[in-house]
Design a protein that fits this description.
Length: 63
């Protein structure tokens, strides 16, 4: 799996359709072909970045 944000191959699967990037430290999920990107906060909670990037951000990056 390649990170949809930084394009790194240094990623891992942490759940069903849930992935983590060891280069940019983001998590993402894939549901029905749509990516949702999350920032991991200091307390371990996930903050959804969809509002920041908007719908279809991964298609614009050429993923």
């Amino acid at each position: 799996m390649i990170c949809p944000y930084c394009q790194s191959k240094n990623t891992g699967k942490i759940g069903t359709e849930h992935y983590y990037c060891w280069e940019c430290f983001v998590e993402w999920t894939i549901e029905n072909g749509n990516y949702t990107l999350y920032q991991v906060e200091e307390d371990g909670t996930l903050c959804c970045l969809d509002d920041l990037f908007g719908d279809g951000w991964y298609a614009e990056r050429g993923s």
